[in-house]
Amino acid sequence: MNVVAFQQTAPEGAVSPARSGLPAASVRGLSKQFGTGPVIMSGLDLDIHHGSRVAIIGANGTGKSTLIRMLVRLVEPSGGDIRLLGEDVRKLDAPGLKRLRSRVGFVFQRHNLVTRLSALTNVVHGVQSRMSGPRTWTQLLAPREVRAEAMNCLERVGLADKAMARIDTLSGGQSQRVAVARMLMQRPELVIADEPDASLDPKSGEEVMATLAALANEQDATLIFVSHRMEHAIRFSERIVGLGGGRVALDQPSDTVSEAELTRFFHHD
Fold first, then answer.
1. Among candidates 186, 178, 184, which has minimal Cα distance to 110?
2. Are 191 and 8 within 8 A, CB to CB?
3. Partners of 190 in beta bridges
4. Ramachandran class of 116: left when φ > 0, alpha when ψ lies in -120 to 50, beta otherwise
5. Which of 56, 94, 210, 253 is the most exposed place for a label (fewest CB within 10 A)?
């Protein structure tokens, strides 16, 4: 199969940060408190530039997953400003938020795949950010060009030979790579991954992170990922952002941070 170049697409009228020079993501004074519980985040400022690969790290409870979910209001912020892909996120209505989310590819710890269906059909489902209707429900109904694109996405994550295999027959690492292929089917401008390696064995986790980093580098796409594995934060990012005390407590190029420094950071109270 010929490998088709991955094309990032923005909705009509949307301005890509790559063309505007704006950060892909920017937050100012971001805060979060769940109910009457402790304040998780207070006054957090952060810019993430287009095409960069950024690892978000920190001890348990520092708000890593909360931060990346607030970027697209999967979690509502308590205060502060968020701009994502040129959009003022907190001012978007429901249709506007849906359009923004269609431009963002998510990879979570839980794959959220349909286990009784084939890998190819699960990847076809990724086109639903751009299309709707019964022809997106299964690879048997999908238009020829959609099936070809889905196969290309599977090929890019090294699983073309598993296209017809049911998800429940695949290993955890293979299933996560199918989730990555489904995300690619969205043609996202920004990829957000929340501990995609957390539930995997070391070898599978390494493969998934290497796939994500390689695809981001290949397409000059922005990648923001949360990781609890220090070696992955160092190896697969260009920049490491550490959270602590409700704010950014560490922000350095990954090649300047040692594992010893990160170990001390993770254990900082």
1. 178
2. no
3. 104, 222
4. alpha
5. 94
Select from 137, 108, 105 the least CA-distant residue to 121. Answer: 137
- Paired tokens of 116: 């009784």
Nearest alpha-carbon partner for 214 in 152, 158, 147, 150 = 158
The per-residue pLDDT for 83 is 97
Letter string b/e over residues 68-87, b meaning 16 or more CB atoms within 10 A of that residue's CB: bbbbbbebebeebebbbbbb
3-state secondary structure of 268: coil
- CA–CA separation, 186 vs 123, rounded Å? 9
Mean pLDDT for all residues in the chain? 84
258: its two tokens: 């040692």
Quick: pLDDT tens for 193-212: 998 888 778 888 888 888 88
Q: 92-126, pLDDT tens digit by residue?
A: 999 999 999 989 988 887 778 989 999 999 998 88
Distance of CA 230 to the CA centre of its chain: 18
The one-letter amino acid at 96: G
Q: Find tokens 């196969």 and name the residue.
A: 151
d(CA 29, CA 77): 10
Give the C-alpha separation, 137 to 247, whole Å. Answer: 42
Q: Which of 73, 102, 85 is nearest to 183 (CA)?
A: 102
CA dihedral 144, 150, 156, 159 (to 10 degrees): -110
pLDDT at position 7 is 43
CB 196 within 8 A of CB 108: yes
